[in-house]
Amino acid sequence: MFQIQDNPLLMIALIFAAGYPAGLLARKGGMPKVTGNILAGILLGPSFLNVFDHSIAKILEPLTVFAMGLITCVVGGHLSYRRLHNALYRILSVSFFETAFTVLLVSGGAYWYTGDPVVGLLIGPIAAATAPATVLAVVFEERGKGLLIKTLFAAVALDNVFAVVLFSLGRAQIRGMTGGEGGVGSGVLLAFRELLFAVLLGVILGFLLTRLVRFKKIEPFSGLLMAILLATGGAEAIGVSPLLTSLVLGIFLGNSERKSESWVTSLESLEPALMTCFFT
Prior knowledge:
By secondary structure, the protein is an all-alpha fold.
């Protein structure tokens, strides 16, 4: 008997076919398209029509990782020192204290409720992360521009950098508490090594991309798509965060030269299709 889970391409087509009109209906009702996409996904999911079961998340995981890599690259591209240097200290301060307060509050609450410090160390950094996909989808839908939008993208990027760093350190602490090999010190070194590798991979890919495009060896759009695929796939292969790697790639391109900054914004043409599939 034919099962839709056996055909990933058909699954993507059905998701887009359901999510896109649902987004348009939500828009007509005065809501963001994201709301319609999410409701369509819930309707098609195992809780209602059961067109897709829980295995869809595993089957479409590569597409999800690529979509998140593209989104974080676009967000990172807006973190340009040229445009934000006047407000950079203020944005850094707000993001740092926002993240720190959230982590302390959620970690403390989780520890108080469960009595398990491991739960607190894991949940706290996760709660501090800001969902870049939702922010990007709503901003692009409303065609938002100006200082507020630039500040918002910068804050989202920094929030996620802090969250990844804190999660890595929390995981290292858990490793030491649970008697992992090497204890806390070894775990912290491993966490910093993972962060360093993610940053280096993003910088190297950004550097190679700018050189290849400058010498007309590759088209900017095609090269950037290839770089994002290498960033997400390469990061997973070496066991580091694909989101941080893609974010660093975007930050590098946004700060290297003005033309590179425009390459990142050229990805916005892919956003409607990716956002529809991602949220549905």
